[in-house]
Every structure is written in C-alpha cells, then in structure tokens.
Amino acid sequence: MADLFKTEVLTPDRKLLDTQASSVFIPASDGEVEVLANHCDFIGSLGQGILTVNAEEGTHRFAISKGLFQVINGSLNILSASITTSKDITLDLVDIKIEKLNKKLSETGISKEDVQFLKDELRYAQAQRKMLGGQ
C-alpha cells in the first residue's frame, strides 16, 4: 500500500473531508498539482476545477473554486469558499446556471471585472458539470 498523509478539505463553514490519502490532484490556478506522501512544504492558490482525493476508503471528487492549499509537515489542507459535492447539486441545475452565465457574458456594457467574475463562475459551473459526469 502507498504511503498515506493527512488531508483536509474545508470551506469557511464546514469540513468536507478529513482522511488519509495516497494522492491528491489539485486544480491550481496555474495548472494541476499532484500531492503525494512526503511532499515538501508548499503553498498554492486554487483555480476552478475538479479536486480528486485518493483515500484509504476510496476516491472523493469535488468541484472547487478559488482558494488556497498548503502542504505543511506532511499534511495537506485545502480551503475554498466554494466546494461542491455530487450531493449538493444536480446536472439540471448546473446546466441552468451555465446557460444564465453564458447569457450574461454575451451582454454588452459589462465591466472587465464583471466579465472576469462571470468567467470564473462559468469555469466553476463547468467543473461541477464534469464532476457530475456531464461533458
């Protein structure tokens, strides 16, 4: 069996996972990062995407948005303001959200800041869709 390390997945208001993992694939802001046991201390920023935790009890998948992750003293902590599990949302609701975001992005006269926010939300919704098995 592979070496294991403590992994926690958190939002400001709840702990979604506290487990021993063999590997974790993190959607970082600049690409995917894989964390294994005995990883050097590291801190990074999260992007929108799918977080995959390969744990003792099985694989856990989450759609996550921006936040931070850190490896410190052999433990991994992932903190994001927005984390979705497959129990939190349905494919129909995600599709409605994506449609609304695309409609807003096609409007004229929106600020650059609003465009960036909408694009970030769209990437998060697309990660939710992918997590649920949609394309």
Tell me what you see in this structure.
- By secondary structure, the protein is an alpha+beta fold.
- It folds into two domains: 80 residues, F0F1 ATP synthase delta/epsilon subunit, N-terminal (ATP Synthase, domain 1, Sandwich), CATH 2.60.15.10; 41 residues, no CATH class.
- Helices cover 26% and strands 45% of the residues.
- It is built from two helices and nine strands, in the order E-E-E-E-E-E-E-E-E-H-H.
- Helix 1 packs antiparallel against helix 2.
- The protein is globular.
- The chain starts with a strand and ends with a helix.
- The model has no long low-confidence stretch (mean pLDDT 93).
- Secondary structure category: alpha+beta
Q: Say what the CATH topology of the largest domain is.
A: ATP Synthase, domain 1
Percent helix, as a range, is 25-40%
Q: Architecture of the largest domain, CATH level 2?
A: Sandwich
- Principal-axes geometry comes out as globular
Distance between the termini: 33 Å
What is the β-strand count?
9
What's the helix and strand layout?
Layout: E1 5-11, E2 14-28, E3 31-36, E4 42-46, E5 49-55, E6 58-64, E7 67-72, E8 75-80, E9 83-84, H1 91-105, H2 112-131
Parallel strand pairs: 1-8
Antiparallel strand pairs: 1-2, 2-3, 2-5, 4-7, 5-6, 6-9, 7-8
Helix pairs in contact: 1-2
